[in-house]
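Notebook p. 47: complex prediction with zinc ion.
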Amino acid sequence: MNKERLVIFDTTLRDGEQSPGASMTREEKVRIARILERMRVDVIEAGFPAASAGDFESVKSVAQSIDDSIVCGLARAVQGDIDRAAAAVQPARASRIHTFIATSPIHMKSKLRMKPEEVLNQAKWAVEYARRFTDDVEFSPEDAGRSDVDFLCRVVEAVISAGATTINIPDTVGYSMPSQFGETVRQIMERVPNSDKAVFSVHCHNDLGLAVANSLAAVLNGARQVECTINGLGERAGNAALEEIVMAVRTRQDVFPCDTALDTTQIVPASRVVSGITGFPVQPNKAIVGANAFAHESGIHQDGVIKKRETYEIMRAEDVGWSANRMVLGKHSGRNAFKTRLREIGIDLESEEELNSAFARFKDLADKKHDIFDEDLQALITEEAMKSVEERYRLVTLHVCSQTGETPEARVTLAVDGDELSAIAIGGGPVDASFKAIESIAASGAQLQLYSVSNITSGTDAQGEVTVRLEKGGRIVNGHGADTDIVIASAKSYLMALNKLATRVERRHPQKSQPI
Ligand code: KIV
Ligand code: ZN
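Predicted complex, structure tokens below:
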């Protein structure tokens, strides 16, 4: 029996980027979009073009780079936003405009200050207007989870008549319960007379930890598109995690009447790249993509798995992209082996120059570390990609002195706009001393919001991956660095964050500052 298609709409680059501290550069977005395309994601929501010139350019670049997935731009239900979204996605081979307006009593009254009839008319108008640019228009009644179902049915019927081809029901604040949310979707689909003219979609937030459960309940009640993000990134507690949705549906084909077209072996590489770029680590016990997702600690479980894998494993690790043969390269590996392995783990470097520079860094790493694993390659390429950020500050040398009974001291030399400057500082530990020395040169005044270290692979020669989050004047940036020496990784990470702060960006979120 042929199963129906469940459309996967990834919004890592839009809602995912709305996680505080997760902002991505244009190059980073294109890199993630290429991985999503390789994974065979159906729709990539590339951003909110009216939010800023930078967002517009990012969506346009994604639209220019992607062939196989539909590229979507978000727009409030106003002409200016729809014009910007249409222009940004115009270069795509297949494009979608996603327009939204809130329908819950609290949003209409307190945020939009509009009457329900005005909202309904605005929604209809916006869809009609968006249809001038593309046949593929999605409409979302924002905060549907707290909207009146009778009113939702009227709005949905009107926007389908106006030409909406996808109706997305968002649980914007993560308030719904699975049985209730599934029932809402079922009722709308049943009661709206023209519901067969559109694909029904859901977009669930995770404030109560129910985003995946709510999305799956909606699928069981007729939804055929799910909006989700890699690693569940997104506004506040995040969105439904793509990897969990896709694997739940794939693993429980006895329950679901539909399936996705995704190449699930790309899931773990995509998760690593998104985590590396955003600096949001994946918790070890995270389903599917956490380091422990397929690890068995108890003797009884290990014994069971050795005798028959299915005793304790419901999925195969290799099916989601955990590679069985994890050791890949070493000091004697050549450029060709390096390039081939990168390709196998989903990384295509664009130019020879990028490849040469990455290969030189790989050789440096192989001098310090005997076995180079896929995770090391991912970290190395992420760092390489980050070089696209203008480098105002560059680490020239770092010398730290730390011994029992003595106060740790760091001596650092930075190249700042081409001039070499040095400073010495003491601190509670070598990392603290290094950051103080860097700050005494940069005098950025930024506040350290987060410092985290994790080992990329196992063993004492493993690279440490450091994330530093800095805040200045309300702007939050992440820096990350990897090195076999965690003090150097920390300094690199701090400097990357400083370089991001030094890069001028124009960014505003009309969604937050202006109503409609
Ligand atoms: O959460 C939400 O309601 C949204 C909409 C724009 C779909 O992100
Ligand atoms: Zn959302």
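Notes: The chain is about 40% helix and 20% strand. Confidence is low (pLDDT under 50) at residues 506-515.
Next step: compare against the earlier run before touching the bench.
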